[in-house]
Amino acid sequence: MTGAHDDVTPRPVPGVADTVGLGGVHVDPVWRTRTALRPVEAALLRTWPVRRLGLVAHAGAVATVTTQTYSRLEHSLGVLGLVAHLAADDATTRVAALLHDVGHAPLSHTLEGIGGIDHHRTGARRVRGLGAVLADHGLDAEAVLATVAGERPSVLAPRPGLMTLDHLDSYVRSAHAHGRAMPAPADLLGDLTVDDGAVRTSAATASVLDGLVEAEVAYHRSELNVLAVGVVRHLVRRWVGDGGADAVARVGAMTDAELVAALLAHPRTADDTRRFLADPLAWRVVPAGPGAPPDGAEPVPAVRPYLTRALVTGQPTPRAVPAPALGHDHWVVPEGEARAQPRTDPAAHVWV
User: Fold this and answer.
1) What pLDDT, in 10s, does the model give residues 82-129?
2) Is pLDDT at 4 greater than 90 in this prediction?
3) How far apart are the C-alpha atoms of 111 and 114, rounded to whole Å?
4) What is the C-alpha separation between 29 and 15, in angstroms, rounded?
């Protein structure tokens, strides 16, 4: 008989997609897959490097201004589900799918490059830090890293210019979050195989995937994404500049909420952080032109999203992805400064 204060392990809740593997199963709400978790995967889901991904937005800074608010952990579990569907017995690749993003800083790609932030290098260190957990289950951290890097053949291997399972989940999960028109992901999955890491499918499904890629490119190059990325990078650069020798390392280890708390607590970033959270449109996107940037501007490099294509009859789809607006460098400036700038050169100062 169970006493009133005895410990009880939580049981799966019908209709609830959890990220802790209750009952030894992960149910993905996008792909509608049910993945029976192996003991090593269940163990990794109870480690901080993996749990932390649940507190990092996959979309980065733009998650603050869009409905794309799911986490890196949800994406990683999605990739695990795809690998388990296509290569269920490849234990190393399954773990590589779960761990491939553990190196991300808060807000994912948004902070990449600031002070040398590099999610690939950090990820390798964190995977090695999980080496004891992997070894307990007969797996090797170096083999996992080789799989992530494509040095070991697998369904997860990166293929330059071609769509991988990592990209596939990103495109489909983003489309799902934004309500973009597409067939049910489960139906798409039924028409997919993988050829040496590259997604292979029919011409009809490849056309759907091309459309998702185009939508994602336009989204990443949009004024809204550039604005959010620019403001957050500006604030973090200021915080890091004032934070001392270990500031970059401290930022890289934070969750999204911890980063926001740090920015709100710092005298030189607090006001602008509150302003951005309360009114993101208080900033403007300004195409970069010759000469000095406007006062208070944050340069935002040209966005170069993944332009990957699926294979049809062994060949990449020929459809060209157009280059939408914002394919070049921009500045992000507070609204007051933007309106105060002279407009003597329309080619250099096209105010958005």
Assistant:
1) 999 999 999 999 999 999 999 999 999 999 999 999 999 999 999 999
2) no
3) 6
4) 10
Termini Cα distance of the chain: 67
Residues 6+ apart with CB under 8 A from 41: 21, 80, 94, 95, 98
Interatomic CA distance for residues 122 and 120, integer angstroms: 6
Query: Whole-prediction pTM value?
Result: 0.90
Q: Which two tokens stand for residue 146?
A: 């080789």
Beta bridge partners of 201: 192
Length of the chain: 352
Q: Helix H segments across 3-140?
A: 39-44, 48-51, 72-86, 91-99, 119-129, 131-136
Nearest 5°: the CA angle 328, 273, 113 is: 45
Q: Give the pair of three-digit tokens for residue 236.
A: 């973090």
CA atoms within 13 A on the CB side of 48: 5
Q: Which residue, among 110, 318, 76, 105, has the nearest Cα to 220 in the 3D structure?
A: 110
* Other Cβ atoms within 10 Å of 92 Cβ, number: 19
User: Could you tell me the pLDDT band of residue 266, with boundaries at 50, 70 and 90?
Assistant: very high
330, β-bridge pairs: 287, 300
Residue with tokens 């600031």: 114
Report residue 148 as tokens: 């992530």
Q: What b/e readout covers 222-252, taking b as 16+ CB neighbours within 10 angstroms?
A: beebbbbbbbbbbbbebbbeebeeebbeebb
Interval 216-241: pLDDT, tens = 988 988 889 989 999 999 999 999 99
The partner residues of 331 in beta bridges, in order of sequence, read 286, 299
By the 8 A CB rule, do 118 and 105 touch?
A: no
Least confident of 24-28, 192-196, 206-210, 317-321: 317-321
Neighbour-count burial of 42, counting CB atoms closer than 10 A to its CB (0-12 exposed, 13-18 middle, 19+ buried): middle
Where do we find the tokens 């309106």? 339
